[in-house]
């Protein structure tokens, strides 16, 4: 379907929705759905009308400029406006294409962020903790809610793994490109010879799922409780409050022990399980849709190396788009992470715009 055909379809649907809502015949649920769809289509329709008006005006101005009997001063003004509109039309077309890009249904969702230490032993665990703090600061800067779900620490300031719930406006849209292997190159404090070590941590960003998104049969769940434990006595209590949930069909296992209440730990573990199952289903759908096409910014696969944090050179490099920023401290402080995410988002939009042509 051509761009103009798509616009004609959208304008017709917009008018149909307006007419349906005006009749007063829709029940409350259908009225809410119609109003939501109408609101989503309105920016596209308004931009299309602006583009149509600009093209029509260009035609009128061209006639005015070509008229040999017209006033010279008016022709000069028309020529000036004609040139301005000729520059504006491609901009309007680009803006319209951006509005027509298919939206990721999960973009407006909250997210579950999971960080796991990879190769590198204690140094990898320390790096995982650094990434945790980076995302925590990033969330604070965006005024998002950052709620720890489960943390397994090493007792030396590092994290074996950590999962958090991040909620706020556009959380998943901003964080979805963070999934993958993050690599750090630095001299560990315990390294007496000053040799640079390379360690890694894995990040997974999952859209938070609602119960209605995932069909879970209670019979498929195995729920175990156990006594929480932690380094140096942290999290330790004398009741079996920690919860481990195993989903039989998928083999996914989640656990939570941060709360003293078994009920709260179970609720948090279920939140993570829902997110992982939803992500699993969405990944299967995405794989089917993209069987013959790989995104320019990478697949988001957890095994894919996406970024390197080099301490000796003070740089951060995102390998998917060959972007290097010499702002290591600001990126890890959450301040400059937006620069990386903006570049990744722009690259993704460019790739999807190319498919729209």
What is the element string, with H for helices and E for strands?
A: HHHEHEEHEEEEEHEEEHH
| Overall radius of gyration | 27 Å
Report the end-to-end length measured between terminal Cα atoms: 10 Å
By DSSP, the count of extended strands is: 11
Which strand order does the major sheet show?
Answer: 2-3-1-5-4-9-10-11
Count of helical segments? Answer: 8
How many strands, what sense, and barrel or not for the largest sheet? Answer: 8 strands, mixed
Question: Can you give the helix content as a percent range?
Answer: 40-55%
Taken from the alpha-carbon principal axes, the silhouette is flat
Note poorly predicted spans. Answer: 231-238, 291-296
Instruction: Decide which structural class fits the backbone.
Output: alpha+beta
Q: What is the average per-residue confidence, as pLDDT, rounded to a whole number?
A: 84
How large is the share of residues in beta strands? 15-25%
């Amino acid at each position: 379907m051509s761009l103009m055909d798509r616009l004609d379809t959208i304008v017709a649907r917009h008018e149909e929705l307006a007419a349906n809502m005006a009749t007063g015949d829709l029940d409350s649920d259908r009225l809410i759905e119609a109003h939501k769809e109408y609101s989503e289509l309105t920016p596209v329709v308004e931009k299309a009308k602006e583009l149509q008006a600009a093209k029509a005006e260009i035609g009128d101005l061209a006639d005015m400029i070509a008229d040999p009997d017209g006033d010279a001063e008016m022709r000069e003004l028309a020529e000036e406006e004609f040139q301005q509109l000729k520059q504006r039309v491609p901009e309007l077309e680009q803006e319209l294409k951006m509005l027509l890009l298919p939206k990721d249904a999960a973009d407006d969702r909250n997210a579950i962020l999971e960080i796991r230490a990879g190769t590198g032993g204690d140094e990898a665990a320390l790096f995982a903790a650094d990434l945790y703090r980076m995302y925590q600061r990033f969330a604070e800067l965006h005024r998002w809610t950052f709620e720890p779900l489960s943390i397994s620490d090493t007792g030396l300031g590092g994290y074996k793994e950590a999962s958090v719930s991040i909620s706020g406006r556009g959380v998943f849209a901003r964080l979805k490109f963070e999934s993958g292997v993050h690599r750090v190159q630095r001299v560990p404090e315990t390294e007496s010879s000053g040799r640079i070590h390379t360690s890694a941590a894995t990040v997974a960003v999952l859209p938070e799922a609602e119960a209605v998104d995932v069909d879970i049969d209670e019979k498929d769940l195995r729920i175990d409780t156990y006594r929480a434990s932690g380094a140096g006595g942290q999290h330790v209590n004398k009741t079996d409050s920690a919860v481990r949930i195993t989903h039989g069909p998928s083999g996914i296992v989640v656990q939570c022990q941060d709360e003293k209440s078994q009920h709260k730990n179970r609720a948090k573990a279920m939140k993570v399980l829902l997110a992982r199952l939803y992500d699993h289903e969405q990944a299967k759908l995405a794989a089917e849709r993209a069987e013959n096409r790989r995104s320019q910014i990478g697949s988001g696969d957890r095994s894919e190396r996406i970024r390197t944090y080099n301490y000796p050179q003070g740089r951060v490099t995102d390998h998917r788009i060959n972007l290097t920023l010499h702002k290591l401290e600001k990126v890890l402080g959450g301040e400059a992470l937006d620069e990386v995410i903006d570049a990744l988002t722009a690259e993704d939009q460019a790739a999807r715009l190319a498919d729209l042509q």
